[in-house]
Design brief:
By secondary structure, the chain is an alpha/beta fold. It folds into 2 domains: 10-230, Spore Coat Polysaccharide Biosynthesis Protein SpsA, Chain A (Alpha-Beta Complex); 232-302. The chain has helices at 23-35, 54-64, 79-89, 110-118, 136-152, 169-177, 185-191, 215-229, 232-260, 269-302, and strands at 10-16, 41-47, 68-72, 95-98, 123-131, 165-168, 196-203. It has a 7-stranded mixed beta sheet, sandwiched between helices. Helix 5 runs parallel beside helix 8.
Length: 318
């Protein structure tokens, strides 16, 4: 009978897509940081369908160190899917730390995050102030991402709040219980609530390789966040309908004023334009009403709970 390995106190979850050249160095840094905690830990590494040597390197690391737990995807399912898999497989009884495999999220900060957790925080979110060697284009697109997300969604994500964070076990359980498939974890972490504190840091250069997030993926990521947390785009048609009907009213007043003031108007043109404005406004209003029903259906389809309970600190592991 196989002996059951006791669950660790901490789990480190890392997605990896073609990061084979970074894994050995990253494993050393993670183990060194984990050993400073004074409690058992594991490293859950999710290979997101890499085409380089990532799979082989992870298997070699796991053979040498049982604390390293590799998970291999059949293909590239994406960063959010890899994080989700890591959270679902993390066995930590205390807290889970999520970070990237390229070294830009410094593992040396893990003891600081854990200290905040031990002080009572349920979520310790890191805020990136700057990235060493970051290009102007990357800095601009990153800023545009947070600006667009905060303006168009119901979230208020601080700029630089990436996927480097610590989550208490009950926060991980709450996230794992959410049934929705199209996930935007950066937003869900804020949506579930709990006690959150932030820690600022300066990101390092990638240890090697290139970033996997280009402008197209950043835009797709932003749209995913907007549609997951806001019905504002759907309700835009209603607002436009109100504006068009208002303009129709203004134009109707102008036509009447011109008529009584004997101001000549092109025959047929005012009535045609007024009818167009009225019909367009009514159509946009009806689309707005339909969009409101659609947004409610979207909310129901996500299946998110109406509320989430938080266990008092005194009943949890300190």
């Amino acid at each position: 009978m196989t002996e059951q390995i006791p669950a660790p106190t901490f789990s480190f979850v890392l997605p990896a897509f073609n990061e084979g050249t970074n894994l050995l160095r990253m494993a050393e840094r993670l183990c060194k940081a984990g050993e400073q905690l004074g409690e058992p830990f594991e490293i859950v590494w999710v290979n997101d369908g890499s085409s380089d040597e990532t799979e082989n390197v992870l298997e070699e690391l796991a053979a040498k160190d049982p604390r390293i737990v590799p998970i291999h995807f059949a293909r590239n399912f994406g960063h959010m899917a890899a994080l989700t898999a890591g959270l679902e497989h993390a066995r930590a009884t205390g807290a889970v730390v999520c970070l990237d495999s390229d070294g830009q999220h410094p593992p040396e900060m893990i003891p600081e995050l854990v200290e905040k957790w031990r002080d009572g925080a349920d979520i310790v979110q890191t805020i990136r102030l700057a990235t060493e060697g970051e290009s102007f284009f990357k800095r601009t697109t990153s800023g545009a991402f947070y600006w667009l997300l905060n303006r168009m969604s119901d979230l208020e994500l601080p700029q630089g709040a990436a996927d480097f964070r610590l989550l208490d076990r009950q926060v991980v359980d709450a996230l794992n219980a959410l049934p929705e498939r199209s996930r935007f974890l950066r937003g869900l972490v804020y949506w579930v609530g709990f006690r959150l504190v932030t820690v600022e840091y300066n990101a390092e250069r990638r240890m090697s390789g290139v970033t996997k997030y280009n402008a197209r993926k950043m835009l797709s990521f932003a749209l995913n966040g907007i549609t997951a947390f806001s019905a504002k785009p759907l309700r835009l048609s209603f607002s436009l309908g109100v504006v068009v009907l208002f303009l129709a009213g203004v134009y109707a007043a102008y036509i009447l004023g011109a008529y009584f003031a004997n101001i000549p108007l092109v025959r047929g043109w005012p009535s045609m334009l007024l009818a167009t404005l009225l019909l367009s406004g009514i159509q946009l209003l009806m689309l707005g009403v339909l969009s409101e029903y659609l947004s409610r259906l979207m909310t129901e389809a996500k299946g998110r709970p109406i509320y989430i309970k938080r266990r008092p600190r005194s009943t949890r592991r300190g």
